[in-house]
Design a protein that fits this description.
By secondary structure, this protein is an all-alpha fold. Helices cover 69% and strands 2% of the residues. The chain is built from 16 helices and three strands. Helix 2 crosses helix 4. It is globular. 36% of the residues are buried.
Length: 368
């Protein structure tokens, strides 16, 4: 209630007679006729309070004041050096919106990601044009947000636009091609076209391998996505094999990060920042949780696999800074590994638990 009151206080009703003759303001989110004005920047408009609040929570709260020079244009500001400075400010806004949309999408907050993705695309088109490679990242963000909201028709339109741009741009990099095939694969998975989904995920793996190598954490996400499709097709042997690849890749990756953290190499914070993006924590943990649930439901449980997955989750939460959860998953991993004679992970798990115990001054530390 307090937040709603605060947000309402930031708007006022538009007085049509106060607008220049022949102009009409439209809603920031839906482009319908606007009735409300943001009192803080006075250059952003909304059709109703719901859209104003959604935009504020999604992105406007971060960029409100940055919009004033962008939207208060004059003939002078559209010329020479002033025009160049205006383009730089829009480029800055694109980056802010891109990062904010990515963060919210990684947290599965699709509705909140929508305003940031929309504004990112609007600025990208304004600077680079509709059908340009530079606008592709914004199209993909908007497609992912709408996919999470179930707007599959719009997603298909957006991805079709991206496909056309990529097709006519032979020099388009591996990153955009990889992201496009991931989005197409997810769309086909949701709509039930599983063979097309597998084709696109295979392409995702190819471009990820070209960019990062076949054993990278990025590449293995493609294996995970393919495994999900094979599971839907009832091909459990293939699914389990792909899941095993994903587990082993992440186990090696996380083990290196923990080792670097423990040894306190020259700049461990920078190393972790570049090797493990905390904004992707929820996505990685969900992936590991899905694999763990699959293995636990399997009629022929593989205790070794369960031990590896739970050890991965323990390391993941340790890197996140939640020693309480790290200890919980670490204990489960240790108990499972001890059921297997001479299991080679037991010593590593014990070392992690000892490290967590030495750091665990508060029994319920806050997550980072």
């Amino acid at each position: 209630m307090e937040e709603g009151s605060q947000l309402s206080a930031t708007t006022s009703r538009i007085i049509p007679l106060a607008l220049p003759k022949g102009t009409e303001k439209v809603c920031e989110l839906c482009q319908r006729r606007a009735k409300l004005l943001c009192n803080k920047c006075r250059v952003t408009f909304y059709c109703d309070a719901e859209h104003q609040q959604a935009d504020w929570a999604g992105i406007h709260g971060r960029i409100c004041q940055l919009l004033i020079p962008i939207r208060t244009t004059t003939l002078y500001s559209l010329q020479g050096a002033e025009h160049f400075e205006m383009q730089l400010k829009k480029t800055e806004l694109i980056e802010i919106c891109r990062l904010e949309a990515q963060r919210k999408l990684s947290e599965r907050k699709h509705y909140e990601a929508l305003p940031a993705a929309q504004f990112c695309l609007r600025c990208s088109i304004d600077i680079h044009g509709h059908c340009t490679v530079q606008a592709v990242p914004a199209y993909l963000l908007l497609a992912e947000a709408n996919m999470g909201l179930g707007n599959l028709g719009l997603v298909a339109e957006l991805l079709s636009q991206v496909e056309w741009v990529v097709l006519k741009s032979p020099d388009c990099g591996h990153t955009l091609r990889r992201q496009l095939h991931r989005s197409l694969g997810l769309l086909h998975t949701v709509t039930g076209n599983l063979e097309a989904a597998l084709f696109n995920f295979a392409n995702y793996i190819y471009f990820a391998s070209e960019e990062y190598g076949p054993e990278s954490a990025v590449t293995c996400q493609g294996y995970f996505l393919m495994a999900d499709v094979f599971a839907k097709q009832g091909k459990m042997t293939i699914t389990r094999s792909l899941y095993s690849t994903v587990i082993q890749t992440w186990h090696v990756h996380l083990s290196k990060l923990v080792q670097a953290h423990v040894q306190n190499v020259q700049t461990p914070c920078m190393l972790l920042e570049h090797s493990y993006d905390k904004s992707q924590h929820a996505e990685v943990d969900e992936m590991l949780r899905t694999i763990l649930e699959f293995e636990e439901k399997n009629s022929t449980q593989d205790s070794g696999q369960i031990a590896v997955v739970t050890h991965c989750r323990a390391m993941l939460w340790f890197l996140r800074g939640d020693n309480f959860k790290a200890a919980g998953f670490g204990s489960t991993a240790l108990q499972t590994s001890q059921l297997i004679p001479n299991h080679d992970l037991t010593e590593c798990i014990q070392s992690l638990l000892q490290l967590v115990s030495s750091l665990q001054t508060d029994p319920h530390p806050k997550s980072g």
